[in-house]
Specification:
Helix content: 40-55%
Mean pLDDT: 94
Bound molecules: arginine
Strand order of the largest sheet: 1-2-4-3
CATH topology of the domain at 387-563: Isoleucyl-tRNA Synthetase, Domain 1
Low-confidence stretches: none
CATH superfamily of the domain at 387-563: Isoleucyl-tRNA Synthetase, Domain 1
Shape: flat
Number of strands: 13
CATH architecture of the domain at 387-563: Orthogonal Bundle
Distance between the termini: 34 Å
Largest sheet: 4 strands, antiparallel
Strand content: 5-15%
CATH class of the domain at 387-563: Mainly Alpha
Number of helices: 21
Structural class: alpha/beta
Length: 572
């Protein structure tokens, strides 16, 4: 919040000197090296270059006309024209006191809140959710949390795959090969078996393939029997999804699957034809991108020659619906990196189709999860790993650790703590790497108490809470922060001030890993602070102020974990 105030004042000062310059490029960031200050901007150099002035001169003039005396103890010019700001002790103390009073958590309310549609998780019906879905679910949920907490309006929509050619085979399988007993024991496994059986058999059997196609056509024409079976498959899948979402603490405002757009598809295609965006090609309807380098060789088909529509058509209809229904500032899609081409095509068609729309579209993609050996993450027998099994294993492994550390703890409590640690560890391991790279899944690493893990952060959280609990007669109203003195205290206080900036950075690039790393650094600052500054055994105002600092740090840490979707525990 302090950062954005400085940013505004620098922009204003620049405008006074150069009234015609575009100041939206003025960015103030935390100083990479705290030796030079708390915040820094390099914007003046670019502005000077564009307006033909000397950068150091401009920096001097900006500094002279800038009034930040209520916030900063110094503003220094460095290098070719950097401005470095050091926040005054008074300002830091004031912010800490406000935090303690519950006014803020060092996060500014946005000037203009955005309306954001988040399309994430989106698994396919009649299949088990597998590890591939975890990244979309967890990343999407974290972004939704950070957007909401930062004051934006969020609409989450689970675009489940509940329509498409696979239903021809599933319907055929259901009608001819359904094993009632297996189905009642494990419906999804039975649906997967049916699909595989029919799919394998139809590879060399044209007649069977034709039979599947006609089941599909009957479904699309609204045949009551096929609709009934299709609905049953969706119901069962949704129950499975909901169990997983409940375990992960993930919630959706809408679950508008692909089928919701079925009736709109012909209209989308004819509209694109009418506007000259799509054209007929060999009986199919296609959009060509001759003038877009990376898409030149990848035309998008929006209607197949047999009249069927596809994934792209549905996504276009979905955009149209979201624009009308929600009028969002941005729609964010969280999927696997393998869908990059698909979204590039969709975004390009959108640009041509609804170029005057204010809505921005953003594809937030992620890499694969690899096994500890760096190869694709599979079960021992080479199958895909089901998400439910993965979460079970996480909880079991965490339980073993909890029991070893707390053999006398009540069983129910051990289990509850293990649940939070297990699920939290999986989530954290998923959010910590740069989302664009593949990452190696390692149980040992993610459940370790050392290093950048959920376990380490959860432990830091319990420790800080236990200090506050033990403090006895401490009262936050007695805290003044006047006794803060030790470098470790200041380092921690200054880290807290950056919480808001980190959340902005998370949203700017849709990268929760920034928040993970921030919390890890925060936890390390807290540890260094304990090391240097006794809290409970300190005396007088020192003790009170340090407890106040612990409380602020505890709140930021707990909020950070909550934004990652990680449940905290009282004890470990
Ligand atoms: N169901 C798709 C899949 O599992 C993901 C859908 C993503 N969202 C979208 N609007 N296309 O690959």
């Amino acid at each position: 919040m302090i950062r954005s105030i400085i940013e505004q004042r620098v922009s204003r000062a620049v405008l006074e000197i150069l009234p015609d310059v575009a100041v939206d490029q003025v960015k103030v960031r935390p100083c990479p090296n705290p030796k030079f200050g708390d915040y820094q901007t390099n914007a003046l150099m670019a502005i000077a270059k564009r307006s033909g002035t000397n950068p150091r001169d401009l920096a001097t003039r900006v500094r002279d006309s800038l009034d930040v005396s209520d916030i900063c103890e110094s503003v220094e010019i460095a290098g070719a024209g950097f401005l470095n700001f050091r926040i005054s002790g008074d300002c830091v103390r004031r912010l800490l006191r406000e935090c303690l009073e519950g006014t803020h958590l060092f996060v500014a309310v946005p000037v203009t809140p955005l309306k954001v549609v988040l399309d994430f998780s989106s698994p396919n019906v009649a299949k088990s959710m597998h590890v591939g879905h975890i990244r979309s679910t967890i990343l999407g949920d974290c972004l939704a949390r950070v957007y909401r907490f930062s004051g934006h309006q969020v609409i989450t929509d689970n675009h489940i795959g509940d329509w498409g050619t696979q239903f021809g085979k599933l319907l055929y399988g259901w009608k001819h090969h359904l094993d009632e007993k297996a189905f009642s024991e494990n419906p999804i496994t039975e649906l997967e078996r049916l699909y595989k059986q029919v799919n394998d058999a139809s590879e060399a059997d044209e007649i069977l393939l034709e039979a599947c196609r006609s089941e599909l056509v009957r479904l699309q024409q609204g045949d009551p029997e096929n609709l009934r079976i299709w609905n049953a498959m969706i119901e069962i899948s949704k129950q499975q999804f909901d169990t997983i979402y409940q375990r992960l603490g993930v919630h959706f405002d809408h679950t508008l699957g692909e089928s919701a757009y079925n009736d709109a598809l012909p209209g989308v295609v004819s509209d694109l034809l009418e506007k000259g965006i799509a054209s007929e090609s060999d009986g199919a309807t296609v959009v060509f991108f001759e003038d877009v380098k990376e898409l030149k060789d990848h035309p998008a088909m929006i209607r197949k020659s047999d009249g069927g529509f596809n994934y792209a058509t549905t996504d276009l209809a979905t955009i149209d619906y979201r624009l009308r229904e929600f009028d969002p500032d941005v729609v964010i899609y969280v999927t696997d990196g393998r869908q990059q081409l698909h979204f590039k095509q969709i975004f390009e068609i959108f640009r041509r189709w609804k170029g005057d729309s204010r809505t921005k579209l953003e594809h937030v993609w992620f890499g694969a999860i690899l096994g500890d050996d760096g190869r694709p993450f599979k079960t021992r027998s080479g199958g895909t790993i089901k998400l439910a099994d993965l979460l079970d294993e996480a909880e079991e492994r965490a339980l073993a650790v909890v029991r070893e550390k707390n053999p006398d703890m009540q069983w129910e409590m051990q289990k509850e703590i293990a649940r939070c640690i297990g699920i939290g560890a999986v989530k954290y391991a998923d959010l910590l790497p740069n989302r664009n790279s593949d990452y190696r899944f390692s149980w040992d690493r993610m459940l370790s108490l050392q290093g950048n893990t959920a376990v380490y952060l959860l432990y830091a959280n319990t420790r800080i809470n236990s200090i506050i609990r033990k403090a006895g007669d401490y009262s936050p109203t007695d805290v003044t922060f006047e006794t803060l003195e030790d470098p470790a205290e200041w380092a921690l206080a200054r880290r807290l001030m950056n919480f808001g900036f980190i959340l902005e950075a998370v949203l700017e690039e849709s990268r929760p890993n920034y928040l993970c790393n921030y919390l890890y650094e925060l936890a390390s600052d807290i540890a260094a602070f304990y090391d240097q500054c006794p809290v409970l055994t300190a005396g007088g105002q020192n003790r009170t102020d340090r407890l106040g600092l612990c409380q602020c740090a505890g709140r930021v840490l707990a909020k950070g974990l909550e934004l990652l979707g990680i449940e905290t525990v009282e004890k470990m």
